[in-house]
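During the reporting period the student researcher (J.K.) took over the structure-prediction task from the postdoctoral fellow and processed the backlog of single-chain submissions. One of the processed entries is reproduced below for the supervisory committee.
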Amino acid sequence: MTAFEFEAELWLYPGKGGWHFVTLPAEVAQQIKFLTEPKRRGWGSEAVIARTGTTEWTTSIFPDRASGSFLLPVKAEVRRREKLATGQAIRIALMLDSA
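J.K. obtained the following structure tokens:
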């Protein structure tokens, strides 16, 4: 399983739903694009296992045209457990879920 670690800011999507995301650093996004190109899923999403602090969750990352990177959604349960706030820099461990 391919893994990445990085720090990025948690931000709130300005539209409906109150979705919170982390934008992956450009160098991480480029590596993921290179590794996953042959088996790209619908909408260009990739299944991942993410961890911040002691909380781990299964989700998908989604391509973002504006940044040229991927967006990682951070669930409300994760934000509550880890006491995360919008604008906070958080450490993420991300593993491509090849299952």
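The committee noted the following: The first strand starts at residue 3 and ends at 12.
J.K. will present the remaining backlog at the next meeting.
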